[in-house]
Amino acid sequence: MNKKIIVGIIVVLLLSTGAIPTTNQRTTALKLPVVIPTLNSGAVQNETQVTCYVTGKLGLKHITVTIPTQTAIICYAEFHQLIDNMTNHPFSEKTQQLKQDFITLLVKNNLLPADIPLGHYNNLLNPPWFEKLRKNHNNAPNSYTPKPIAGTSTAAAVLCSITGEGVGVLFPFLMLPRPRLIATWAVLDGYTTVGKFLTFGGFTAQGSQFGTALGFWGIGLAFAFPYGNIYGFGGYALFAAVTAQYIERYPPDNPPIILGTNPIDGAQNVPVSLSELRFSIEDPDGDLMSYTVTTNPDIGSGSGSLKPAGTYSIPIHGLQELTQYSWTLKVSDKELTTEQTFTFTTQAVAPIILNPVPKDGERHVPTDLQELQFTIKDFQGDPMDYTVQTSPNIGSGSGADVHNGTYTVAISGLLNSTAYHWYVNATDGTHWARKVFSFQTGFPTHFDPFEKGWHYRKQITISHTNIPQDFTNFPVLVSTVDTDLKAKAQPTGDDILFMNNTGFATILNYEIEQYDGTTGTLIAWVNITQLSSTEDTTFYMYYGNPTVLSQQNPEKTWDSSYLAVLHMNDATASTIVDSTSNARIGMKKAADEPIATSAQIDDGQTFDGSNDYIQFNATIIPTGIKTVSLWFKSTITPSDSFMGVLGNALNGGSQDKGFCISAEWKSGAIITFEIGNVELYGHFLTVSIPVPDSNWHYYVGVYDGTDLRVYRDGSYVAVDNTKDGSEANPNYNFSIGKSNINGEPYFFDGSIDEIRLLNSAGSVNWISTEYKNQNDPAGFLTIGPEVQGP
């Protein structure tokens, strides 16, 4: 007989890999299938010689028979199915039945020595310890989904069960049951499962791999075909180690957990007498842990080695009052490390002085202000004495044996456009505190500009037909080219003033974004305190005061709901600035690029899509409820697979977090708003809408805590409420013109103007009104004729 196939069946001791409770939840994407050979009847002989070896307590026996080649293939297929089930479902009823069926198949084809009782094989299939492992498996958690570790890695176990299958080389061909012998396999494509006897758990190895088993007992089947070797085996070993393309561990090697600290993270008013930092640690796998603690500023440090779960402490000393300290705790179980940094702020020993009114550094304080106000507090509850002085002198005051509270001092005689300082001293009899505050005056709360040096005014009217509902504190864009301003206002525009009425009236808070005295071009934002939907709203622009200083107040034009207002014009060649009181500064990151160019409202920034973007050293976009708006223009083509527009991004890091906007081509140009936690797959809310053309369009994303809605040009377009949108606090810096996805930066090609970030959910009427005003300022309001003062 011309043998073109040599098939060896080695029956040793069949044991289950019963220590790994993998279920249908197990990750299967990485499992590489083992190919069962199919034979062409014209390529090989119809019969194959098979030698079967049986070893165990009865010694080593073998039998050689000739069987049809197709029967040999059926034997391999049955064995392959058995190994697969032993690997993935070791305790299932189907696996137990497959064990019985495989032995029956061998008996039917006379592949087992006749002098060995069939019951002997049954005992080998289900050894005495098997039911115990099966019980442990049934009591174990069944919700685990293995997490593969990509890249070559190694896992090992002692006193373990083991199964394997693959395409490669198994050595030796006969894996004899003697502990001194070594079994190895070098596999291009295989799957090995190892389960521990001493502890519950184990690992699987997938893909290309090299494995070693010392002292192996088990069952093996190897086919040697002209085009490659296919093998399968199952049993147990004194020691097994595998280096593989993918490793999955069960239970996974979990990192240590920091359960709690004292002081808690962010604690305030911590006594300066604190003498130790305490923390509780635990390892889910029960591993011993080592820890180190460092502090900044340095108040002490400490470490410990091979500690069980518990509460530990390190001594500290030298704490100063009203000081923030940080301490970093690093805990390791030798394999994995957990590191966290905590902060606390110490309590004041001396009284503290806070909440000044006017605020420190405040401008345009009315000259008819009648009192200064402040709060003093002593954390030990001691009675206090205080004194207040002013410079220039506008009043003073004092108090004795007072307790925690808010106090006032009467003042008078304030002059216009004057800087004042005031000094508060407080003592509890032992410790002193001193604070210096300042402010600058403007005009009285109510005054007539014509009486203060202004010579001209114009009435500005907003038709109620443009206002769908009543609004408060609505920043209105006033954009005009006015030859009267060119001829009569200061060249800097410092004398341009907005009032809510004529005669004795109140200044409206406003910001002048741009003024060109050579053309009379004015772009200003005026906070209208009451904008009516039933009556026309009027306010007044005054100008023509050659000596007055600027009265604009950007910080109060944008109320506390505005986290950033970016007009996107250059502050310097390399920076843009925020108009709110937060005063954020954005740095251009590519040699003074992007470039300021004419945009929708005034200047915006144009990005080249290559390497230019703007970075802020703050997160800015909050977690939770928010509104993000911008004017956007870009020519998106099929070659633009993805472009970052704005979002929270790690400075130089790998992944956007929290909220981001991107643009790309997907059967047409689209812009996408996305919110969620990048570390929690499936938590993202995503809304993608078409970009109709390469003109300027106004986009707004609103998240109300449940729904993410997107508006274009003042109209609602789409919503996503299919996921929870939960966000981890990203602590990532806000960037414009760039996104980071999986370690790759994606830059924006186009122009952006007027970005606003708010911590509130804008209504559809507010958004539509903003669009009307910003898209067509001349149609939104009318500016009347000039009126000259007396």
Write the layout of secondary structure elements.
Elements (H helix, E strand, L loop, with lengths): L5 E6 L35 E8 L6 E8 H20 L4 H16 L9 H8 L4 H10 L9 E23 L10 E15 L5 E24 L2 E23 L6 E6 L4 E4 L5 E7 L6 E8 L5 E6 L2 E6 L8 E9 L4 E10 L5 E6 L4 E4 L5 E7 L6 E8 L5 E6 L2 E6 L8 E9 L4 E10 L14 E7 L8 E11 L1 H6 L8 E3 L10 E7 L4 E11 L5 E7 L10 H4 L4 E5 L8 E3 L7 E4 L6 E4 L4 E6 L5 E3 L9 E8 L9 E7 L6 E10 L3 E8 L8 E6 L6 E7 L4 E5 L2 E6 L12 E4 L1 E4 L2 E4 L1 E10 L5 H12 L1 H4 E8 L2
Parallel strand pairs: 1-2, 9-15, 17-23
Antiparallel strand pairs: 1-6, 2-3, 4-5, 4-7, 5-6, 6-7, 8-10, 10-13, 11-12, 11-14, 14-15, 16-18, 18-21, 19-20, 19-22, 22-23, 24-29, 24-48, 25-28, 26-29, 27-28, 30-47, 31-32, 32-35, 33-34, 34-47, 35-44, 36-41, 36-47, 37-38, 37-44, 38-39, 39-40, 41-42, 42-43, 45-46
Helix pairs in contact: 1-2
Compose a concise summary of this entry.
This protein is mainly beta and 790 residues long.
